[in-house]
Here is the input.
Amino acid sequence: MNIKDTQIIIAMAIYMAAVVVIGIVFAKKANKNSENYFLGGRSLGPWVTAMSAEASDMSGWLLMGLPGVAYWCGIADAFWTAFGLAVGTYFNWLIVSKRLRRYSIRANNSITLPDFFSNRFRENKKVIMTLSALFILIFFTVYAASCFVTCGKLFSTLFNQPYIPMMILGAVFVLVYTILGGFLAESASDFMQAIVMIVALTVITGVGVFKAGGLDAVFENARQIPGFLDFFGMATPSLNEAGQQIVENGVPAFGEAADYGFLKICSMMAWGLGYFGMPQVLLRFMAIREEKELKTSRRIAMIWVVISLAVAVFIGIMGRQIFPTEHLTSSEAESIFITLSTSFLPPILAGFVMAGILAATISSSDSYLLIAASAVAKNIYQGMFKKNATDKQVMTASRVTLLAIAVIAAILALDEKSVIFQIVSFAWAGFGATFGPLMIFSLFWKKTTRAGAIAGMISGAAIVFIWKLGISKLGGVFGIYELLPAFIISSIVIVVVSLVTPKPSKEIEEDFESILVESK
Here is the structure.
């Protein structure tokens, strides 16, 4: 190991030590009871609520996946995805946050998403609770795998070590940290990590523009690539038989620009629909200490999201000008942020910037693991099998579940050729279609029935799998992002089934109406 690698490790170790200290500081309060461990006792301030919600949501995808897409095929896919996410973020904070915070308390002080859905419909047989917990377990395991892939690629690229041991090392660190501190530690560290992420993006952008010779040089290079800067077209790298981009006389080869029509734009903007069903974001709405502070949180969140997404897309465009032939596959392209950082920054500073990727990964994976574990321990173990379980037993079950999920996620992450963007897109669609329509109808339509809720969840999740693994293979109009048709079908199913089944009980309607009264 050379001096440069040692300095990078030192800088990252300082960051990781700070994360562990946060876990230790909050461990005592977090372990006081299950509500503190899973929801922080509803004590988050507006800044921590906003920043931790967005940091836990974006993950390493923001620093690796999104720049990688822009580097590989130009601005269209990356821009319309980012635009959809920004719009989805705004409306989620605007219309969902306050009502969910209020309704979750009314619904028997629910502290998890399955709790809320089950209590919202006053279930006796916990079908909604069990199904939602299982779906959370499935999709968050996939999500955690994407985070472990990020860790593996980061450490493998930085230190020129084999991918699998580096991925396992990152997974172990995340697991230990999550077990230690719970939701409060996770949220506090996510706040710090959100700051690290946006600083890292900004620093690399500034240094990269300088090294590239200015903004004009960056965009002039991009204009030379057919479709690279088109909002309604897409660059198409020319590939050899091995799937690598062809390089001719030191210049990467591209074919003619591909069409990028209205349906494709709608498909990518559909990413924004995912926010309505994203547990790690929705839990922050439930955990804030005062409902009135959500307005401040919304403004903070939007500023962070818009800046971060815009800069991440630009880094991919800039990277194509500075290192045109460095990454010759779509998977390798996701390392462009690492390449820029280690090439242009002093090792110590590069280490802290690399901590931005680690920050993004930890802030997401600890959220995913904790929410999945809470779904199993609180909603399945205690909710179904041992209703008289003590808080200590629930938390023990949670930690055992954390270990099991981490092991499965690590197995899923063994393939170093995995594309982070693709893994995240599937899990995102799963949550968006399974919980998004149900969340909206639960909060805003009094006639939503328990049967409609169950049918909506199942249909949303099923269509994601069916569309992704089968229908999308037909291409053409069927090649759209699976979240869009799944979200629409789930919404239709909720309405139809709710209208043909017995209406909600008087108590359920009174709960709903009391929330409307409080909002006036």
